[in-house]
Amino acid sequence: MGEGRQRRVLIAGFKHETNTFSQLPTTLDSYNARALIYGAEIPKKLRHTKSEIAAFLDACATNGWQPIHPVYGDATPSGKVTEDTFEHITTTIINALRDEAPVDAIMLALHGAMVCTHVEDGEGELLHRIREHTEPDLPIAITLDLHANVTDQMADLADIIVAYRTYPHIDQYEIASEAAELLRRTLDGEIRPACTVRRGNMLDGADHGRTTAPGPMTEVLESARKMTSNEGVLSISIAAGFPWADMRDTGPSTLIVSNGKKSEYADMADSLIDQIWQSRSRQSIQTFTIEAAMASVTSRPTSEGTFVLADYADNPGGGGYGDSTPLLRAMIEADLQDAAYGMIYDPVAVQTCIEQGLGGHAVVAIGGKIDPHFGEPIAVTGRVVTITDGKLRLEGPMMAGTPVDMGPTVVLQVGGIDIVLTSGRFQCYDRMYFEHARVDLTRKSVIVVKSAHHFRAAFGPIASQILVVDSGAGLTSKNFRELPYENVRRPVYPLDMD
């Protein structure tokens, strides 16, 4: 860097959690449906949010760095990212490196489980393409989701990698701040960071990363925390992995950022992986069948408070289609009262309800349109009680302040159930998905969310009891042995062992 010149740091985000068993391709339209932001719009929309980009921007302000922010893309989990989509966002980043030269460092918000139609390791390929246009010693810091499948290529090409340590992910801002501080120390010549990654023979592990109760993930995180006192250890991350991605390196990994590389760091990472392996059969949650969940809900005293049910098998946050119907059908057949269901992805049904108008009665088939194998559409007659544009701002704790646009959204009241129907696929982990549509959750005795675990951050405080329902009807059920894995390394637990 020239003497007296302000440091210039490129900031970008390119995030996707790819469920390779989904038939929905991830295209530019998929990114536009959730977040695809360019240039000056990035700080306008993401500053002052609990996001990685906000932390990167704040770090630039604190350290006097000039930020360059060409693009931020984030799509709802779905099938493989198409080559033209990957090329568009990657090229936008690389063009900024060229056009805004000189650049002194790079900070990237990634997920770590992106699979593309043309390449298995999306993040590794992105880093490879970026490295082709940088000096070899230009530092790159990246953040990853706790459910990343961390590859050797990612660890080789990034200097600093820090993954979330909470699930639900309520520490995104803090994790990005940690990565940015390590980058500052690198630029100031205090450290020369390097990454060491190790993984085990598991598709899933560490209780899938859950941190809301004591268990395997909290235990291994505590072991990692104690190891950070070792000389040269700068940061340790535990990635629980994303098991619904059929790629070679799918599964849990341990990652150590150290000041230089020594064999002892690999030994530390191996010991943490061994701890995850030893706890592979332990879980901190119990899952229920639909029948068991309905029996529990219908037999409870009316004074017992609010039951929150999670539709685990059809979680859009893991690539589920968001339109499976078995749990909703059971609720309707049980004639539940004072209930809310969020959400069913069905833009056709939304349009039908809008055409009937507010207060109108709609006869419509809802859900089950992408893959009826996960439940046929349900023919219902209901009253349209809300019509919205689907625009809201998350209130947290997870991703507080982040704007969301689901497209036209309605609430269809069927019997005693308020069903939120959307034009976009979104995981229901924030109360605003209901409340923006004027669903009063304080008056509900049963709330159902299409989410696996993130919902606990916002809905846990209002729940008297939580039931996680795994019907098997969805792409995020834990029926790993029934999925057609072809590319994952073998042998691997639980496909071949135990």
Structure in words:
With 498 residues, the chain is an alpha/beta fold. The protein has two domains: 8-278, no CATH class; 287-480, no CATH class. Helices cover 28% and strands 23% of the residues. The strands form four sheets. Strands 11-21-12-20-13-19-18-15-14 form a nine-stranded mixed beta sheet. Helix 3 (52-63) packs parallel to helix 7. The protein starts with 7 loop residues before the first strand and ends in a 29-residue tail after the last strand.
Quick structural summary:
The chain contains 14 helices and 21 strands.
Which helices and strands, and how do they pair?
Blueprint lengths: L7 E8 L12 H7 E4 L2 H6 L5 H12 L2 E3 L2 E4 L8 H17 L5 E6 L11 H10 L8 E5 L7 H6 L2 E4 L8 H16 L5 E7 L16 H12 L5 E7 L13 E7 L3 H16 L8 E2 L1 H10 L7 E5 L14 H8 L5 E7 L1 H10 L4 E6 L11 E11 L2 E3 L9 E3 L3 E6 L2 E6 L9 H4 L10 E4 L6 H4 L5 E5 L29
Parallel strand pairs: 1-3, 1-4, 1-5, 5-6, 6-7, 11-21, 12-20, 12-21, 13-19, 13-20
Antiparallel strand pairs: 2-4, 8-10, 9-10, 14-15, 15-18, 16-17, 18-19
Helix pairs in contact: 3-7, 4-5, 8-9
Structural class: alpha/beta
Rg is: 23 Å
- Percentage of residues assigned to helices: 25-40%
Report the principal-axis shape. Answer: globular
Strand content: 15-25%
How many domains, in number, for the residues?
A: 2
* Separate helix tally: 14
Cα(first) to Cα(last) distance is 55 Å
Mean pLDDT: 96
Number of strands: 21
